Amino acid sequence: MGEEQKNIIVFLDDEENVLNSLKRFLRTEPYDVYGTSSCEDAWDFIAQNPVKIVVSDYKMPDMTGIDFLAEVKKKFPRIIRVLFTGYEEASFNQNALLRAQIDYFIDKPWDEDDLKNTIRKGFEEFDKKNSLP
Question: What residue ranges define each of the domains in the chain, with the CATH number in brackets?
Fold first, then answer.
């Protein structure tokens, strides 16, 4: 019998305190959580690990979260893409959203139950989409 694939999630956020809070908050969940404030570090980790979910903050220093998630979609189409944002005006460029094919949105500050439910749904969706018939 094959070994079950780990539930690996990557958080990309330019605020270290947010990353630390997320790691603490999810420490009791059955997930491997990797957090980074660097797009380059996130790429390296994603390329070397069987990541199922990537959560990117909308506003990053080098590129928007939408642009980052669009690249994830292009290079790793199976990964579930989540946009993490504190911007309530929702003035996102619709073409960019379509290009990135965002699966879920999480508002900042996050509601703990909503965050856990969204992540759980993301892992379930990944497993369902990628299970063998």
Answer: 8-130 (3.40.50.2300)
